[in-house]
Amino acid sequence: MSSNQPATALIAEDEPLLAEALQAELAQAWPALRVLATVGDGTSAVAQALALQPEVLFFDIRMPGLGGLEAAAELADAWPADKAFPALVFVTAYDQYAVQAFEAQAVDYLLKPVQPARLQKTVSKVQLALAGRAQAAINSGADISPGLDQALGQLRQLLAAGQAPAAAAPIKVIQASVGSSIRMVPVAEVLYFEAADKYIRVLTASHEYLIRTPLKELLPQLDAQVFWQIHRGTVVQAEAIDSVHRDESGKLSLSLRGRPEKLAVSRLYAQQFRAM
Amino acid sequence: MRPEPGPISAAPSAVRTIDWLAKFRHMLQVMAFALAIATLQYAFVPDKPYGPPLVYSLLIATITWAVIDLGRELFPSSAETGWPQGWSALALVLGAIVLGYVGGTGIADALCQYYGWYPPGAGHQDPSQLRSSILITAIAGIVGSFYFYAVNKSAYLQRKMTEARQHASEARLKLLETQLEPHMLFNTLANLRALIGSDPQRAQVMLDHMIAYLRATLGASLQATHTLQAEFDRVRDYLELMAIRMGPRLSYTLDLPEALAQHPVPTLLLQPLVENSIKHGLEPKVAGGHITVSARREGQHIVLDVIDTGVGLSGTESQRTGFGMAQVRERLASSHGAESAIELVAVHAGGTRATARFPYQA
Lengths: 276, 362
Prior knowledge:
The complex is a heterodimer of chains A (276) and B (362). Chain A has 7 helices and 15 strands. Chain A folds into 2 domains: 8-161, Response regulator (Rossmann fold, 3-Layer(aba) Sandwich), CATH 3.40.50; 173-272, CATH 2.40.50.1020. Chain A has 276 residues and is of the alpha/beta class. By secondary structure, chain B is of the alpha+beta class. Chain B is 59% helix and 12% strand. Chain B has 10 helices and 7 strands. In chain B, β4 (289-298) and β5 (301-308) form a beta hairpin. In chain B, α1 packs antiparallel against α2 (51-71), α2 (51-71) runs antiparallel to α3 (87-115) and α5 (182-198) runs antiparallel to α6 (200-219). Chain B is rod-shaped, with a radius of gyration of 34 Å.
């Protein structure tokens, strides 16, 4: 995008008055900014961001469907590799842990109610970042998306910071109800877990079970050395991984010992797979 | 927000450690008591030597003490108060007194004989003397045991009282924390700030609801009950605030029959249920939904319903049956006892229904 055109933005905020207010405040603080769309939930935010390719994203942390962080992670995964990743600004009313994490990762954020002076500061920072990025792109003529790697690193840290601390002792058995009885499935036999709507599919070499625990609650109970998260909804037993493939677009996928499926690895978790 | 682990209350641990210093203190106290008895005995019969009654008294007392004070550690029922419960306590004390008397006099007899202070059994040769020494042992044993029992019991009650007080203030703090949740507060303020610029009149209305909500929340602990009308007014304040925030994603219906408007209800009983419906039902749902709060009379009961069309129960069940529900259940139980009930069910069309039921008062 050439620097002569006005910068573009997307606002994701579930409270309509606050979305309006942010847009109004932005009109004051950054008159040249064009807000392409305002959405009220995380899933639409991802879809609209991919469709409109804005340069700046204002994402509320708590939204129905996908939260701001998860939406940003999803977006980073699907973002075209040859386009600059947008500058991210998170908006939150009160999340002391999130704010600490933002500070630590040098991620831009705004606190609600948004104060004009603070917004002005954020705008200056974002403008600076966009200018620097444009310059870098001209200088290097780089083919990898500027900012995407950095955003992935930040998001990885932010998501990890928001996770529940690991349980003292990992669980050994999964209790899955099958009809009216409960099957005890040894965790060691599980090849991978896959989140499906409100359930988790538990897959062994020969069987498939459903459990009702959200993946977010199951994850801290698994041994992180044994089970690797490779996608927002997929956790794989590392020893069951047979090989990792990279396609033309650079996306990774896994094939497993004992299962025919190929599992997609999201960009967020791809850094685990490096040739030794 | 992550909950901080609360101060750990002194739960009875599975493995009890014996406080040997306390035991030693008890023994010294018992010996002093025995000394006093021997002195008394000597004071009443000064023509007999002082030595033998002292030896008898000390030995009987020490054995009795040892059996009771060490013996009670063997009873699992003494974990809390330090004493076994019911009959086993009585049996322990009586057994200890008999053992103390028999053992104590036996050893004392042997000692006296060995050192030639006294002919064997001379301390209680004639029946009247035997009776009086048994009586003294029994009375001293019971008085001593009662003394230690009372001391233990009062320490136990003190501890329980401190625990209960701590529990109560923790619960109140937690309730306040959920109602004045910073996220809710700052989002509401952000909306107010936006409205002041764009629609001052609506801002004023919103501010009025917020004032009423804050006043009710902060003052809730002062008043145990208020009328259903007041309860529904507070629910309306909260829902109005949320409706401004959530816009078209939230709609609600309040249904309070005129005949029940003046019926008393525990203050802010419905608040946690409505908050649950918003937080776990409607907020996670992209399309939002509807909340219905209603009161009706069913025979001798008042039934309050909070029904939402949110995401339903699965997944976040553990959270929804958490603090809010427990709090409502506890308050209903303390105001209406076993006749009250609360339940949370999934509505087949998606969403949930929380129902509170308590006796109608004519």
